[in-house]
TrEMBL record:
Residues 1-257 form the CoA carboxyltransferase N-terminal domain. GO terms for cellular component: acetyl-CoA carboxylase complex. This is Propionyl-CoA carboxylase beta chain. Residues 264-504 form the CoA carboxyltransferase C-terminal domain. GO terms for biological process: carbon fixation. Belongs to the AccD/PCCB family. Keywords: Ligase, Transferase.
Length: 510
């Protein structure tokens, strides 16, 4: 018996060594942690339950029958993050470059199936040379099975990808279908075709980092939702994110203990809006002052900065925040900001996370650059996402809410539940200057008349009261009491139920 136990321990030690000490050292020398070190940092200490430690591939081509390491290049199982269950797979680059064989894919599929069955998120740590070349179509079939599960799990359990090494070719499409992608600067990349193919086909010279590194994907392409300095920071931030999320779509987000007075008055908000309506201010100040303990988890911080998206808590409960940012492009809506916010709104709606919207939007960005790239369709995404979302929706207009953008940004007409406005709000078809130049075109040569018309327009429309008269704004609130008003609004909506007409699924403009 003792021998058998020792043999088991030996096998385990062998499996834990992955591709061997030399390859582990090489991995660490590149500034990367190993698959197992990453799992240890991601999960609560001692909580990891590993599955399929002794799985080995079945390939017999190219001498592979003599190279059958335990685990087959991916470590899988489940554990907890602050006591809440998550499933995890972590590709082991030290074993055959983390390449995906049929059995490697089967291991991932097994934990994805269990995650869906048992209602817990899947966190995938990607560090792989892609399809195991020696296995040919068996490897591609394995990817296909993973893709299909990504699709089935979408909207059922949160799926989070950490890209911590190579992720190229068709392999990128598994993370691409998950809810959030996080990358590590300088040690990870994602692209459909690498620099060599790019050079051959288009003659462009580009490094892997420039083509598909963390900075590229968080600033330019918006493929990734966050870029971190190193593995340790990335793993810690995913732990923080998981704390905001429900484990599945049938569960409410967790309620955390909070030590922040919900009635907290923020007098400084009364002077947040500058006197001159053309001057910007930082919308993040409002978000931080409303949130429990000023804790804000921003998503896509580096992309389309004219729109802010992320999670806060109110009375310990997760709330998704969408806000125009007047500091960037005056907070205008454009293709990038509409897409960013639409995807975020849909994530919140999938997982029963209420949505808080702060509005200060002068309209849509004009120009051929926008129209040729389809701002009509992309803007419609946000409109559609807000209108179809059945989670509690609370909106606060702080200043401008002009034209179509007023309707889009979670207006009453898109079934927002509670719509507040600060007294500094202006709800109108457009600003006074533009409006006057259109409706009083005949007086354009007479500056005095134009100024008088503009003043008349401002007096009539540069306020929230016309909308409030019609019930489109439920209440004009004091800026300093925003936290309390918003928290109470969400409290009143906790049992919200909406019945929508039966359909297979909608057809959001893609
Ligand atoms: C089998 C692989 C492999 C792969 C790497 N290895 N990728 N084995 N299949 N796809 C092995 C190497 O042979 C090597 O084994 C070990 O992993 C480490 O690789 P190195 O090349 O030494 O590492 P490095 O220099 O860091 O380069 C990493 C790399 C490179 C850039 C990822 O390995 C590479 O280009 N690999 C091939 C990438 C590729 O073309 N994959 C297929 C893409 S198509 P030894 O024993 O020497 O240490 C794809 C389609 C998916 O993935 C489709 C889904 C539908």
């Amino acid at each position: 018996m003792k021998d058998i136990l020792e043999q088991l321990e030996e096998r385990r030690t062998d499996a834990r060594l992955g591709g061997g000490q030399a390859r582990i050292d090489a991995q660490n020398e590149r500034g990367k942690l190993t698959a197992r070190e990453r799992i240890e940092l991601l999960l609560d200490e001692g909580s990891f339950e590993e599955y399929d430690m002794f799985v080995a591939h079945r390939c017999t081509d190219f001498g592979m029958e003599n190279n059958r390491p335990y685990g087959d290049g991916v470590v899988t199982g489940w554990g907890t993050i602050n006591g809440r269950m998550v499933y995890v797979f972590s590709q082991d680059f030290t074993v055959l470059g983390g390449s995906v064989s049929a059995t490697h894919a089967q291991k991932i599929c097994k934990i994805m199936d269990m995650a869906m069955q048992n209602g817990a998120p899947v966190i995938g740590i990607n560090d792989s040379g892609g399809a195991r070349i020696q296995e040919g179509v068996d490897s591609l079939a394995g990817y296909g099975e993973v893709f299909q599960r990504n699709i089935e799990a979408s909207g059922v359990v949160p799926q989070i990808s950490l890209v911590m090494g190579p992720c190229a070719g068709g392999a990128v499409y598994s993370p691409a279908m998950t809810d959030f992608i996080f990358m590590v600067k300088d040690t990870s990349y994602m692209f459909v075709t690498g620099p060599d193919v790019v050079k051959t086909v288009t003659n462009e010279q580009v490094t892997a980092e420039e083509l598909g590194g963390a900075v590229t994907h968080t600033r330019k392409s918006s493929v990734a939702d966050g870029a971190f300095e190193n593995d340790v920071e990335a793993l810690a931030e995913v732990r923080r994110l998981i704390d905001f999320l429900p484990l599945n779509n049938r569960e409410k987000p967790p309620v955390r203990p909070f030590f922040d007075n919900v009635d907290r008055i923020e007098s400084s908000l009364d002077t947040l809006i500058p006197e001159n309506p053309n001057l910007p201010y930082d919308m993040k100040e409002l978000i931080l002052k409303v949130a429990d303990e000023g804790d804000f988890y921003e998503i896509q911080e580096e992309f389309a900065k004219n729109m802010i998206t992320g999670f806060i808590r109110l009375e310990g409960r997760t709330v998704g925040v969408v806000a125009n940012q007047p500091l960037v492009l005056a907070g205008v809506l454009d293709i990038d900001s509409a897409r960013k916010a639409a995807r975020f709104v849909r994530f919140c709606d999938c997982f029963e996370i209420p949505i808080l919207t702060f509005v200060d939007v002068p309209g849509f960005l004009p120009g051929t650059g926008q129209e040729y790239r389809g701002v009509i369709k992309h803007g419609a995404k946000l409109l559609f996402a807000y209108g179809e979302a059945t989670v509690p929706k609370v909106t606060v207009i702080t200043r401008k809410a002009y034209g179509g953008a007023y309707v889009v940004m979670a207006s009453k007409h898109l079934r927002a539940d509670v719509n507040y406005a600060w007294p500094t709000s202006e709800v109108a078809v457009m600003g006074a200057k533009g409006a006057t130049e259109i409706i009083h075109r005949a007086d354009l040569g007479d500056p005095d008349k134009i100024a008088a018309h503009a003043k008349e327009y401002e007096d009539r429309f540069a306020n929230p009261f016309v909308a409030a008269e019609r019930g489109f704004i439920d209440e004009v609130i004091m800026p300093h009491s925003t936290r309390k008003r918003v928290a109470r609004a969400f409290a009143s909506l906790r049992n919200k139920k909406v019945v929508t007409p039966w359909k297979k699924h909608d057809n959001i403009p893609l």
